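User: I'm putting together notes for a lab meeting next week and I want to include a structural view of one of the chains we've been expressing. I don't have a solved structure, so I'd like a prediction I can at least talk through. The sequence is below, exactly as it appears in our construct file.
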Amino acid sequence: MIKVYGIKNCDSVKKALKFFKTHDLEYTLFDFKTETLPCEKISLWLTKVEIKTLFNARSSTYRNLKLKEMNLDESEQIEWLCKENLLIKRPIVEYKDEVIVGFNEENYQRNFL
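Assistant: Thanks for the context. Below is the predicted structure for the 113-residue chain, given as structure tokens.
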């Protein structure tokens, strides 16, 4: 089963969900706006992807919280990811013990078809 993490109104998440629907792939969506992601899940993801891949320094949440001025180190970025799930780059897809960050059609075709 494919597990997608993100928010429903995010364009990249919409593209990912459309891809799965188009190809009749079953998935579940974990919505950051309605559910709280345990910090342990973020720690698990960080064993598979780098913090710079997971931490979205281009998000409006990042700008609104003025995190750029704080010049966060890696451990502080992890703390913020745990506190503010909307800083996580979206979508995050868990599939066959892998973690795929973001939407890339070619990458999805390789991994899911």
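A couple of points you could mention at the meeting. The first helix runs from residue 11 to 22. The longest strand covers residues 2-6.

User: Perfect, that's what I needed.
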